[in-house]
Structure formats: C-alpha cells, structure tokens
From TrEMBL:
Signal peptide: none
Any one Pfam family match given in the protein's UniProt record, by short name: Bac_rhamnosid_C
Domain called Alpha-L-rhamnosidase concanavalin-like: residue spans: 374-462
The organism's place on the tree of life at top rank: Bacteria
Reaction catalysis annotation: Hydrolysis of terminal non-reducing alpha-L-rhamnose residues in alpha-L-rhamnosides
Keywords: Hydrolase
Protein name: alpha-L-rhamnosidase
Enzymatic class: hydrolase
Domain Bacterial alpha-L-rhamnosidase N-terminal: 194-364
Enzyme nomenclature, EC number: 3.2.1.40
MF term (GO), any: hydrolase activity
Ranges for domain Alpha-L-rhamnosidase C-terminal: 826-897
Cross-referenced Gene3D superfamilies: 1.50.10.10, Galactose-binding domain-like (2.60.120.260), Immunoglobulins (2.60.40.10), Maltose phosphorylase, domain 3 (2.60.420.10)
Length: 924
C-alpha cells in the first residue's frame, strides 16, 4: 500500500492542476482502500477526497460510473452502474447500487462532482476494485510435506499455555528438522501457450510464505498472511499479475513455507508453545487469456516439495540457514526435481478463509552500522543506531561449512556484550557458508526487537585471520505495517519532539500483524494499548483497513460466555486476571466508537454490536451489586513499589469504571442503531452502575474517590461518573495531588490517558506541560536522557524488561489535540466538522501538526512572534471548522491581513470557516 505521505504529495500536485473555481475528486477508494484486490462486500462503498483552489468549496452532487472494462469507462459507458446525478454533499461511503457484482471480477470506476455554485468537475482518474472469491470458488486444497495426523503435533487448545513443567516442555520439542516443523519449498511447473491478459493469485501459506513466479518474488510482504486465530479465521492474500511475470512455454510457481505463529518451536527461546498444524499451503491462480479463455492452477497432489535451506525457523527463537542445501534454480524452469517428493493433501485449517484486507507488513527502513567495537580479537558488537523490530542482512565470505552466528539485542551488558536477559533468550541467526565469493543472506521467517548485533569469530571487512569468515557488510531491516503515516507533529519544545519520535518508533516496532506489546519476548496483541493510545494511533497512522481486521480478531477470540480476553489472537491462555481484565476486554466496545469518530464509518458499530453487548453482559455476570472487582487495574502505576498490578488505586474502582463505560457506549450505540429494547436496557444499566460506583468509591466529605490517587479521581471525571455538583472539588483534589507529587504523575498504563485528558479537557494544560517538561522519572524526558531510541515499558528503563513498548505513549493525543489543537467533532464524525483550538503553554513559541483525514489534509500551525499569535490552518474541501483562538476577547484578529469579527464561546474568540488555507493573526 502506498505511504500516505506519497498520497498527500500527489494530492498537492493535483491541486496545482485545478483551475480557479474548479473542484476535483481525487484519491478514490473502495472499502477504504485504494484499488483493492479483494472486496468482499456485495455492495462496496466508494469514497473520494476533493481538492480546490478556492475557499469555502464543497460538493453538492456527484455522478459515478462503474464499468466492466477500462475501455468502456474511458468512453463514459457505465455498463455496470451509472448513478446519474445524485444531489448530496456526501463523498464518503457511497454504497454501490448497480448490477449484481460477480466474484473474482475486476471493475473500473470514476466520479465527477458539482461544486457549491453548480460547476461540474472533470472526471477523476480511473480507480478499480476486484471482488473476492466465494469460499466455494476457492475450492481450497491444502498441501504440504506431512499430514497433521502423522506430524503428532499437539491437538486441541489445552496446549495454549504459558506455564509448563520441564517434562511438558520436552514433550513439545520436535526436532526442527522434522517435517512437522521444517521450512519446505514447494514447486509447480506449468505451461503457457497463449497470450496472457492477466493472472490473479489467491494464496495462504501457513504460518508464513514467500511466493515466486519464475524465481521472482511476488509482492513485498514480510510475514504474510497476517496473524489470526487459525481455528476461526485464516487470511489469504490476493495478487494481480501482468503478462510480464510469465514467459511463453515453461513457467514455475515456487513457494517457501515457514512456521510463524501457526506452529511455534520449543528449542531456544519461546514465549509459549502452540501448533495449529504443520506448514501448509493453499494456492489458486486464475489465468485469463486474451482470447477470452481461462485456466486455473491450484494446489493439489501434482505439486512437489523438498526441505529448504532454512533448517530452523521460529518466530520467537530465530532462524538458521545452510547455504550448502540450496538447490539453485529450484523455482525456475529447467530445474530437475526428480529427487523431490510428492506433496500430501493436508487437513485444512479449521478457520474460515477470509481475504486479507488489512495492509501487509513490509521492510520500511534499513540502517547501516553506526558504530562498531571489537571487544576482543575477532569479537564484534555493532550499534545499528536504532532500536527496532526486524532482522539483519549480512554479506559474508569464507570457507564452505563455516558458520556465522548473529546475536541481536536491544541492550548491552556492562562489559559491552549483547543482553537478551530481559527480552527473551537465546535468540540468534546461524548462517552456514557455501564458500563461493561474497554471500548475502536475510532471514525470512523470524524477527526480533534489537539495536545491537554481536558476531564472534569473524573478521570485519578485512581478512586479518585467514581461518575465519569475514563480515563484509551488515544492515538492519526495520519492518512494520505498511498502512502508511497519517500525521506529523513538531513544536518548539525539544523534549516533546523527542518524545514524539520515541513513541512513534515504538508504535512502528509493534505495528505488525496486530499491535503487539513488544517485538521481542512476547509479540502478543495486548488489547488495552489500542484504545488507550487510540487517538494517537489514528492521528499518526492510517488505520481504516487495519482496525476492521483487529475487530475480526476480537470477535474470533470472544468466548461463548462473552469474555474478551486480554490478548487477541489468544495464542496463549495466561489465566486469571491476565486473561480477564475489564480494562483490556472493553477494547471491543470502545474501538468501534473511536473508528466511527475518526473515520465517519459506523459499520464496525453495526457489525460488532452483538460482540459489544455480549461483553458488557459478561461483566454483569462478574459483578456484585454492579461492582466488578477483578482484573489488573491501573497496570504498572508509578511509585516506589514494584511495577505490576495496580497498587495506588483500587482494582475494583478501575474494573467497575470500565464496566460503566462499556455499558454507556453500548447504550449509545443502541440509540444510534435504533435498537429500542437495548437502549432502555443499557441506559438503565449504565445509570445503576454509576450510582453503585459513587456509593462505593466516593467520599462525600473529602470529595475524593477510592484511595484519593490520581487515577481514582481522574477516571470518574473523564467518564462523567462524578455528579456535576462535585466535579470541581474532585478536580481540585486531583490537581492538589499532582502538585504535592512535584508535578509528577502516579498513574500507569491504564490511568495515563484518563489523567492526561482530564487535565487537557478541563483547562489544565499548563499542568500537563509541567508534568512532562522535565528529564526526571516518571517522564518521557528521563528516557531521552537515558539515550534510548524507543519508548520503554517502565519510566525508568533500568527497572523494566522491554525497551520497545508504546503502552505509555498516550501523550500523543495531547500533542495533536491540545498543543496543535486539532479536535474532532463527535456530532459530525470523520472530521466533517472539526475544531482547531491550540493551547499555548509554558515557554512554547510554536507548534504544528497535520493530519490526513478521510476528507483531506488538516493543518494547524501556530507561532508567537513580534507580539502576535499567528495561526496557519488548512481545512479540507467539503468540511468546515470552528477556530478557537487562545487570545482575549478584545484582541484584534485578522485573516489574510483583513480584520474580521469573531464569535465568543464564553472563554475564547471563535471563527467559523469553510475549506481553504488561512493565515490568522492576533495581537497578544
């Protein structure tokens, strides 16, 4: 998927081509994706952005054409759908309403619009979408080297456990060379006799695969397909190939398989042991010829397999490669495969085959060696300059059979060697040389969180010791999801700038198939960080197609009794509060609402309303007089105590507040969806929980909640649980505690967002500034002073395990919404209308942010200069914004050097503006 920054650049270029008074539809999407290859809906939704050179531009009508061929579309022949002129300002989520769509078919579309004065635009550029297969059409046959029955891999879900004794552990150890665990190569020769129009591949290789056609890799995915609970959902990928990928006569399909999360290993480090079966492949390629005929090549008993040179591959333990086992040309024509064995037909995974609509994980950046130390002769430690999720690429030369072992870690021991003690050990890569010239190798099926690389018994660049292999070059590959960046932020405060960088490096490191907690020891989808960091995630990244996949995983993982576990997919059952904690499970209720607010799309609320309801009902079964008392509480709250379970605040207060919040949001969803019975039920439930919460935790004499902690008082204010007459008193008690602690926080993973936003939304941004503008712990500045490049699990990195966690990154929401002031309007979701209301705090002299909303680019950039407050804003076409200025009511205000009158919201002067670019100046 294209990076969002490239999309923004393209849109900017298009604006220069739009003549005065014109409007132009750009960046066409189908089901939120640009030219998707697997649309599963019968009535997909079409959307576009709009650009215009003039201000106050908007759309009043559109006309869409959908055609069966690009030629017909170019001739304005909408043979599949001609919408006719539709009078509406709506340009998002237009439901297709033409002829019934066929599966596995490509359609082309374009749109033109009328602007606010009735002037018609040019046609947009052509977009397309391809419909997905019906499961019956896939006719999935799964093949591999060994059947599940013969592999003797564990059966059932009882083995999904993180706790085990030595005897049990040994029972899980299968030699990595066994066919049940081994990476295999599969090949299928085929012949092309006619001219190809196109070919479409449908593939799922589990755990992960690499597909080649005639030796050339198809696509740029790493670790495809994305992780799921394979007993519920199995993703398949779709690739569209042109005639250039093939040659007349003999051709070869090659597939390399690895274990991934589908089939973990017990050797070396592992967090848990799980197997859904041995490596397996489903493949279908539909070739369309220019003469109108078609041919289908699929996975069946005619394929052959052989063991690959990857002798060990574990998502948790590393990867080994023996170059002497390479079979040159194995995935090209002319290769002699007489020694290869026929594949076996395998038992299909239990999960439903679903087209992967979320973006793939790809190599996004590459880093060179920053510094290198030779700790002793031929013993090197390399600093790659950036902690990240990924794997190295090595170039080596040496004698046949020599092995180079590559250790990676995010930290160093005192003596300078790599330290894996906190992050899971042993983890390493072994490469055995074939002894011909310079050899280059990059692992394919394992990644780790690391910054440092340690290699022993080598020369580095120069062949000083002729008996040792020589490392010629080393690079570090940073992998993360290719969803694309949606925003940027910068300001005059260097701590905040560095904090923004730290957090986003950690988000990227954990932006994999799912949002993981850390890229080394766990790689698990702990749910709480998604909703607690949700606004920051959405401001920074385009999650339109990623969050629906997350909700599918949540739905798949929900137990029959309604429990949503803390980790999704639930590869391992930790048990107790580590499986069932309301602050984690309630993500299934909160996330559809966040998605609606940021993208203006209610489909997740509609689709997953039963999931949301079922979870709140589950919490009801755990409640006693509406009080829920289990869970982790404000995990990792700050203090002199050891980090872990909430210590500063009652766990029951945390659990019950989230029970209330879940019930409140379900009631709100029921109202929006018109579910009359549910409205009354959940509004009543929310009211009863609120009453019980206040009776249990509020002290009417002291006007404080729970233990009087920051979390105890902030959560009721944020969630509007506190009765209005007591709100100000509770707020003052909260502020008093912060001041007493030296303007420092005592909240944790869960409480940070509620504390930060309670302050921000109640006019206490100066307190937020003081709380974070320092280099002490707890604070982001301490991590910067520590010299880290990613955010860590604890405020003091020396105490925590992982140095690559984003769970404490909730300040991103404050950067965008408060410092830059870009604030969504819940009444007009998707930023159809929004607020720009920057906060000028401390000694800051500028802040700027941009956000690529579903309507277009929003910009808020302010500075204090020469006694003026200068604000530059950009408002997308077809939207409006309310500007709230941080100056006095009497300030003289100009827009583009012209004096203007303002409104007043009781605290700040306001402006109502339509689309365009504006420079607003105020005397201060």
């Amino acid at each position: 998927m294209k990076n969002f920054k490239n999309i923004v650049l393209a849109i900017c270029l298009l604006v220069t081509l739009v003549s005065k008074g014109q409007i132009l539809p750009v960046h066409l999407t189908t089901e939120m994706a640009e030219n998707p290859l697997a649309v599963v809906q019968n009535q997909p939704r079409l959307s576009w952005k709009l650009v215009s050179k003039e201000s106050d531009a908007s759309q009043i009508a559109y006309l869409i054409l959908v055609a069966s061929s690009e030629e017909k579309l170019n001739n304005d022949d909408g043979d599949i759908w001609n919408s006719g002129r539709v009078n509406t300002e709506k340009n998002l989520h237009i439901v297709y309403n033409g002829k019934p769509l066929k599966s596995e078919t490509k359609y082309f579309w374009k749109v033109k619009v009328w602007n606010q004065v009735g002037k018609i635009s040019k046609w947009s550029k052509t977009a397309f979408f391809r419909t997905a297969s019906l499961e019956s059409e896939l006719n999935s046959i799964w093949i591999g080297a060994i059947t599940k029955a013969d592999s003797h891999l564990p059966e059932g879900r009882n083995y999904h456990t993180a706790t085990f004794n030595r005897e049990k552990k040994n029972s899980f150890i299968n030699a990595s060379d066994s066919l049940s665990r081994r990476s295999i190569m599969l090949r299928k020769p085929f012949e092309i006799k006619k001219e190809i129009k196109e070919a479409v591949v449908y593939i799922s290789g589990l755990g992960h695969y690499e597909l080649t056609i005639n030796g050339k890799k198809v696509g740029n995915s790493q670790f495809a397909p994305l992780w799921t609970d394979y007993d519920k959902t199995v993703n398949y990928n779709v690739y569209e190939l042109s005639s250039k990928e093939f040659q007349k006569g003999d051709n070869v399909i090659g597939v390399l398989l690895g274990n991934g999360m589908y089939n973990t290993l017990a050797e070396r480090y592992t967090k848990f042991f799980v197997s859904f079966g041995p490596p397996t492949l489903f493949f279908k390629m539909k070739i369309s010829y220019k003469d109108g005929s078609e041919e289908i090549i699929k996975s069946d008993e005619t394929w052959k397999y052989s063991k690959s040179p990857i002798t060990y591959n574990s998502i948790f333990g590393g990867e080994d490669y023996n170059a002497n086992l390479e079979q040159k040309g194995w995935n090209r024509k002319g290769f002699k495969d007489a020694d290869w064995k026929k594949v076996v037909i395998q038992e299909a995974p239990k999960g439903v085959l679903r087209a992967q609509t979320a973006p793939p994980v790809t190599i996004q950046k590459q880093y060179e060696v920053k510094t290198v130390k030779e700790l002793k002769p031929n013993f090197y430690v390399f600093d790659m300059g950036q902690n990240l999720s990924g794997f190295p690429t090595i170039k080596v030369k040496g004698k046949k059979g020599q092995t180079i072992r590559v250790w990676v870690a995010e930290g160093l021991n005192e003596e300078g060697t790599i330290a894996q003690g906190r992050s899971g050990k042993p983890y390493y890569y072994d490469y055995t040389l074939k002894g011909k010239d310079v050899e280059e190798w990059t692992p394919k099926f394992s990644f780790y969180g690391y910054q440092y690389v340690q290699i022993e018994n080598i020369n580095y660049k120069e062949d000083k010791n002729k008996e040792l292999p020589t490392l010629v070059d080393l690079k570090s590959n940073f992998i993360y999801n290719s969803a694309g960046e949606a925003g940027s932020f910068a300001c005059s405060n260097e701590i905040f700038n560095k904090t923004h960088e730290l957090i986003n490096n950690s988000i990227k490191s954990n932006f994999q198939s799912v949002f993981t907690d850390c890229p080394q020891r766990e790689k698990l989808g702990w749910l709480e960080e998604i909703h607690l960091n949700g606004p920051g995630l959405m401001f920074n990244y385009n999650l339109q197609t990623f969050i629906p996949a997350t909700m599918q995983n949540i739905s798949d993982s929900q137990r029959d009794n309604g429990l949503i576990p803390t980790i999704v997919p639930e590869y391992v059952i930790f048990g107790g509060d580590f499986t069932d904690s309301p602050e984690w499970g309630v993500t299934g209720v909160i996330l559809p609402w966040m998605y609606y607010e940021y993208y203006g799309d209610a489909t997740l609320l509609e689709k997953y309303f039963p999931i949301m309801k079922k979870y709140v009902d589950y919490l009801g079964t755990k409640a006693e007089n509406h009080i829920v008392s289990h869970g982790l509480g404000d995990w990792y709250d700050y203090g002199t105590h050891a980090a872990g379970y909430s210590k500063n605040s009652p766990i029951a207060l945390s659990a019950t507040s989230h029970y209330y919040y879940g019930a409140y949001l379900v009631a709100k969803a029921a109202k929006m969806l018109g579910k009359t019975e549910d409205i009354e039920k959940y509004e009543t439930l929310a009211s009863e929980i609120k009453t019980a919460f206040n009776a249990k935790f509020f002290n009417t004499e002291t006007k404080q909640y729970g233990t009087n902690s920051q979390f105890s008082n902030a959560v009721p204010i944020f969630m509007n649980i506190v009765e209005p007459q007591y709100k100000e008193a509770v707020m003052q008690n909260l502020l008093a505690d912060i001041k007493e602690k030296g303007d420092r926080l005592t909240t944790g993973d869960v409480g940070n967002r509620y504390l930060f936003q309670t302050l921000a939304r109640n006019g206490e941004n100066e307190t937020m500034y003081k709380m974070h503008n320092h280099y002490d712990a707890p604070g982001y500045g301490f991590q910067i002073k520590f010299g880290l490049t990613t955010l860590t699990e604890q405020w003091d990195p020396r105490k925590g395990n992982s140095w690559n966690h984003f769970m404490l990154g909730q300040i991103e929401e404050w950067f965008y919404q408060s410092l830059a002031g870009i604030m969504a309007d819940p009444e007009k979701p998707g930023f159809k209308h929004f607020f720009i209301q920057p906060e000028v705090v401390g000694d800051m002299i500028f802040a700027k942010a941009d956000y690529q909303s579903v309507y277009g680019k929003i910009v808020s950039s302010w500075e204090k200069k020469d006694g003026k407050f200068i604000l530059n804003v950009e408002i997308p076409v077809n939207t409006t914004a309310t500007i709230k200025l941080p100056v006095s009511k009497s300030s003289e205000i100009k827009i583009d050097n012209k004096k203007v009158r303002t409104g007043f919201d009781g605290t700040k002067p306001t402006l109502e503006l339509g689309s365009g670019n504006y420079k607003i100046e105020c005397k201060i």
